[in-house]
Amino acid sequence: TCPEARWTTTSGSAKRSRSCVHAVTGVPDEDSDECVDHSEEPKVCKSEVPTSAQALDAADLLRRFFATHDDGEDGLEIAAAAQKAIIRLKKTQQTSIMDFFAAK
Hints:
By secondary structure, the protein is mostly helical.
């Protein structure tokens, strides 16, 4: 856990914040050493794209989080909308041209 994580730059807390953000989201902060610096282009971080299953797990986690709070109705709606969008993307995922020619 990262209880002291804040977006501040005083006394090393920014470094803790970046590591906590990376631990929670799996995406490194742009200022971290894991990013690749291209001279004229914005920084591009090396990170893997989450799978549909991971995204659905995250939406379920949000739904469970908001369900435990009295004022979580808006959050439940957002989590449901995210889950619906993930399922829609999963269904419309582009297939390879090689799949068309594969033996059936």
